[in-house]
Amino acid sequence: MKKKEKTLRIIGRMVARAWVISAPAAIVLSVLVLLDEISWKTAGLLFLGVLILTMAITAAVFHELENFISYLKSLAQGIEIEPPHFQKGIFSSFRLADTFQSVKKRWFDQTLSDASILEHLPDPLMMINPEGKIVFINQKARSVFGDKAGKTNCLSLFTEDVFQRAVSNVLAEKTTTELFEWSYQHFVFQARIDRLPAPTRDGGIAVIVMNDITPFKRFREQQAEFFANASHELKTPLSIISGFIETLQGPAKDDEVAREQFLNMMAEQATRMTGLVQDLLKLARQQSMPESSKKEVIILPDLIRGVMADLKHKAVQNHQKLICRMDYDIPRLLGNRAELQHVFQNLIDNAIKYGKPHSDIDVQLGVCNGFPNRPEDKRQTVSVAVHNQGTPIAPKHLDKLFDRFYRVDSVQARQVGGTGLGLSIVQQIVHDHDGMIDVASTVRDGTTFTVYLPVDL
């Protein structure tokens, strides 16, 4: 019954359109009748012929247009159906159809491009439907939350109150946008939920974009810890010096022996503060050093020999022997000579400080293919390993050894004059030269710091 009614409506519209198109011919025939050029009967027959001819000519076109309109309505409702078939000819609407197919292809290509952009965004993104179910999740979100996240409800996946409240507000249309910060496992996200102006094809009505601010948060925490440690390290010698000054101004004012003793201790604390300030300035300069300053040609064997010559007297005083071994024909490097000299001077000096008396300090230069833990980097590298026999470093300390102000043994470090910044500066310089530094320590083999630097010449 519905199909018959639809056919009758189509025929009715077709006849009405034919009448409208034939109206000019009817007017002309009426004028000719009024002028007694033709009779009413002749005019009627001529108009009937024009009407029939018009209906015959326009039938195909309007039939195609009806099918075309039905097709557009289906697309508007999100129903993907086969496009109607259009007959090419002088009276057909094939040019309109071809134009639409071209536009549709462009829409389709743009949709694929948009989807590709969303898929490869560097931040996690997902779309949810009115029930909170995830209907789209991009590659970054899958890597963070797992592949199964795309088949679950976000309200059951993320149970934090701030997330649940924000999503519920948007789904209930209390707000159109929610901004909030929340944590997931070891990540910290700055998230934004926006309600879409219209549902997507998959039924999504809101989009959730998450900006990973974990590195920023960690930096802020490290920054706060750094300032706290720096303040503590400076406060301790200042307090000691202040106490000695009060003692010299008071009870020990006329005590020559005490004065000499206190002045020596004050000098030690002043030297300690000077070293700390110099290391802090070194860190600041290193972080602001331009890239152009790292383009000197470095002959590493000569640099190492120079550092060892400078530290030979200190090793002799500690009854130690400096030994240098190297492969034949070590390639030249590009870098900052002063900075690399600081790296190896610090490492060899530490080996002397923390090595056992009457032991050897071994420095070995070699050539490697690639970096440890960087299988994708196949560049040739030069390795410099500094080894000593001393108190081994426990495994729990190895990961934190390069943190600023971190000391394995704070008492021993202060006794040998450490500030807790030396290895942090070394790591910063090595990383700035696109290299890496590794440490290994055992009771049997001792402690070895190994620096790997790429050969860029």
Please give the structural blueprint.
Elements: H1 2-34, H2 40-76, H3 94-119, E1 125-128, E2 134-137, H4 139-145, H5 154-157, H6 161-171, E3 177-184, E4 187-195, E5 206-212, H7 214-249, H8 256-287, E6 296-298, H9 300-317, E7 321-326, E8 333-335, H10 337-354, E9 360-369, E10 380-388, H11 395-398, H12 410-415, H13 422-432, E11 436-442, E12 446-454
Parallel strand pairs: 7-9
Antiparallel strand pairs: 1-2, 1-5, 3-4, 4-5, 6-8, 9-10, 10-12, 11-12
Helix pairs in contact: 1-2, 7-8, 8-13, 9-10, 10-13
Q: Which class best fits the helix and strand makeup? A: alpha+beta
CATH superfamily of the largest domain: Histidine kinase-like ATPase, C-terminal domain
Shape type:
elongated
Largest sheet: 5 strands, antiparallel
Q: Estimate nothing, just give the exact number of structural domains.
A: 4
- Overall pLDDT, averaged? 77
Determine the strand fraction and express it as a percent band: 15-25%
Regarding quaternary structure, what we see is: single chain
**CATH level 1 name of the largest domain:** Alpha Beta
How far apart the termini lie comes to 85 Å
Query: How large is the count of helical segments?
Result: 13
Q: Widest sheet: strand order?
A: 2-1-5-4-3
What's the β-strand tally?
Answer: 12
Low-pLDDT sequence parts: none
How much helicity do the residues have?
A: 40-55%
- The CATH architecture of the largest domain: 2-Layer Sandwich
> Which sequence of SSEs, written as H and E, runs from N to C?
HHHEEHHHEEEHHEHEEHEEHHHEE
Rg over CA atoms: 41 Å
